[in-house]
Design a protein that fits this description.
single chain; 121 residues; mainly alpha; elongated
Amino acid sequence: MEPVTTSPQNSDAESQWQQPPFQPSGQGSEEAPLEGRLVVPESLSAGMLVPRRPPSALESIINVVNGVLWPVLIGMALFGIGGWVGNIVIAIIASSLLGGVSAELKRRRRYLPPPEGDSLR
């Protein structure tokens, strides 16, 4: 059995990969600037952008209640108000209902016409 060594067996210059220089090559280093018209997709032109409406007060309240629902009901269960199972069932049902209402309000808000007086032009 041969002994294991960390140095290579062959001491002559083996082909090793070397990092190429980061200098640009002499060919084509001075490229001409691009010329022509700038093409912008139609959906991004200023006439096509529609400002988004902010969430209504009702939608904001529903989102806040949905966000604090779980911590409040778990805290109530820790303090002995209601049982664990009852509070978790209430949290699951209320969270799914409030999430559905919030998603529907967001979907409807998306398709409303832009508010009066708001213009991007």
